[in-house]
Structures are given as structure tokens and as C-alpha cells.
Amino acid sequence: MKKRKHRMTKQRKVILEVLRNTRTHPTANWIYEQVRKEISNISLGTVYRNLKLLAEMGEINILDFGSSYSRFDGNSKNHYHFTCTECDSVFDLEIPMDQIIDKEISNRTPFIVESHRMEFYGKCSDCQNQM
Amino acid sequence: MKKRKHRMTKQRKVILEVLRNTRTHPTANWIYEQVRKEISNISLGTVYRNLKLLAEMGEINILDFGSSYSRFDGNSKNHYHFTCTECDSVFDLEIPMDQIIDKEISNRTPFIVESHRMEFYGKCSDCQNQM
DNA sequence: CTATTACTAGTAATAATTATCGCTTAGAAA
DNA sequence: TTTCTAAGCGATAATTATTACTAGTAATAG
Q1: Would you give the DSSP letter of residue A39?
Q2: How far apart are CA B103 and CA B58, in angstroms?
Q3: What confidence category does residue B4 fall into, taking pLDDT thresholds of 50, 70 and 90?
Q4: Segment (H or E) for A82
Q5: Sign (positive or negative) of CA dihedral B91, A119, A59, B66
Q6: Which residues, numbered 16 to 35 in chain A, qualify as contacts with chain B under a Cβ-Cβ cut-off of 8 Å?
Q7: What's the pTM value of the predicted model, to 2 decimals?
Q8: Where are the alpha helices (DSSP H) in B27-79?
Q9: Does A108 touch chain B (CB under 8 A)?
């Protein structure tokens, strides 16, 4: 809803360039080190700020678990989860794990897949009603 | 490979009980608060230590992204990832996103699913060769 | 060119998690 | 039961990824 003007600063441009020119999925610190080769006095805070902005702009993706702290699950057998993007609640899903897909990926790639995790995101019942 | 003797202390028992008796997926701090009702002087460090141990013992699951820092991806369109459990490298997978599954989950649950993420885990080529 | 305000570098603050340490205790063996 | 010892404990300090703050800088509209 808020319209925000974005400037294309040298810092932002170089950060995006670094990220576009690698096929790895680097950490903020790695990006910082690379960008320093171009802009030696850039600040790590600037890197974080721009990564966040670029993600909001839809230019890049941040791979984390969303929230900053771990969640613990008393159910030790593998199962899928649904996370509400509104209230951050996590629910178990009753649908069965797809075991076959691991083998399929193993066959189609040079990787040996041992397991997978699937996380669904959306709105839970409570948050749907409050809209 | 290392055989470790595990004792069933009161602290560990209560932590596991708390976690087994909830269907939420609590944070370490929430668990700490609950356990304090039983053992008022328990330390938060004890909670963390036991959660980690219980996970190693296969009693519970930790829901996080594995590593402690975020990874950033210059590719903004959704796709699946493979993470090597040996060297922590993250690779893009070329298999197409399954869009249909979101609707299926929406139909079968009270949730509105807007997106999902699937993460595969195993051994990458390099790490397979080093064994 | 000038005014506005997003942005930056540098640094301090925050917060989740882990490490340390001296004391305690679960559990095996005597 | 008593003894023994390493696993575990509480308290606290340390670590570390990330965010907040601030005074100065610079991108862009007019």
C-alpha cells in the first residue's frame, strides 16, 4: 500500500550484480566480501539493508525459515507443515509424505537425495476471518 | 559413531512432556516458560541443551533452516533447492514447481495456501566422491 | 541549481543460541 | 545400600547474525 521510491545507488547495483553472477546461494557476509572488492568501504549494514529491499522489490529471494528463532516439534516422524504468513502459527498437515519424489530427483540429478521438507504458506482459519 | 549415555533427568522429562502435550510448534522460550511452572529454577541453557539432545536422539524435530544464517538467491522466481548435508552447499533444481498441490491442500484443509517451498537434502557429487 | 529525502558508513544495540565452569545427581557396579 | 563417575545442572558470560541509530551524503524531481 505504501509507495516507496527506490533509488539505484552504486551500492545496490553492485550487490545485485554480485548475486546475479553467482550460482551459489551465498550468505550476507560472503556478498559483503565480494562487494568490498568494488566498493572497499561499504558497510555490512548497507548489504543487509539492500538485500532486504531487493527481496521486497521481488528482485531476489531470501532463503530462511522466516522467523528468527527455531520452532520445535514433539512429533519426530516426518510430516509437512503449514505456516500462516499472518500470525506465524505452524500447523501439522495430515497429507502423507511423498517418498517417491526423493528417488525421482536422485535419478534426474547427480545428487543423492535422502530426504525432503515441504513447507506451505498462506492464511490460517483465524486470520482469514479477521479480514 | 560415538556412543553416548543419556540420563533421564527430571528436566529432560518435563521438557519432552511439554513438547509432546502441545500441538503447536513452540519456540525455545515458550517451552522454557512452560517448564518453569514445574521446575521454577530451570535454566534456559538447559532447555536448549536438552532440545538439541532430544533431536539427536530422534525424539523431536527442530524446524529451522539448518544453518544459522540466511542464504540469498539472485534468482527471484520460485524454484526448489537441494542442500548438501555434508558441505552445506545449496543448488537450484531444474524440476518444475508443482502449482497444483497448493490448491489441493487448500481444498483438503481450512487453510488458504498461497505458496510452498520444498527443500531436498542429501549428498552432492563432490561429497559422494570423498567417501 | 536547489530542495527533498532515500541512502550510506560507522557504530552501537538486540536477541537467539552456545560455551564455560564449579557443583550436583542419575544410574551402574560393588 | 553405598560408592563412584561422567552426564547434567544453574548461572552467567560469550558469540554472532541481524537490526537500529545517527549525522552526513547524494540521487532525483522540479
Answers
A1: S
A2: 32
A3: low
A4: strand A81-84
A5: negative
A6: 16, 19-29, 31
A7: 0.89
A8: 28-38, 44-56
A9: yes
